[in-house]
Hints:
It is built from five helices and no strands. It is mainly alpha-helical. It has one domain. Helix 3 (54-80) packs across helix 4 (84-109) and helix 4 packs antiparallel against helix 5. It is elongated, with a radius of gyration of 17 Å. It starts with a helix and ends with a helix.
Amino acid sequence: MHLNRSRIWLGGLAGGVVWNAWSFAVNRFVVTDARYLAAQNAGLFLKTPRYPMFIVQWIVLVFILAIAVSHLYAWARAGLGPGPGTALKIGFLSGFFAGFPNNFAQETWSAVDRALPFGWMIEMWFGAILAALVAGWLYKD
Length: 141
């Protein structure tokens, strides 16, 4: 099976842009700085990150995930066929794997506001779906 690697990378990079924009929107409007600040003031979060330049690292990680999702879409086309249906399936599964289990555990056992892990789950799950749809739209054999 021949894969168009340049289109995989194009889809992954474009999907990464969309996923990062979605991530910003969720953290700005759903999770909000007020919830983070409340958790920090309650001693549930550190006031400074353990890793320097965390936001830059997060953006890079989301791009890596989007490129992986783009690869998964290209591989799945052979068995599932091209198109948005396949992209939705790949995005749904990838987002579930990336966003649901850990955030479900956080929402169950963590003392932070439940909106935080819920927002993070939505960020990852729908971000993966959006990235897969973008990758599928841009992929050509």
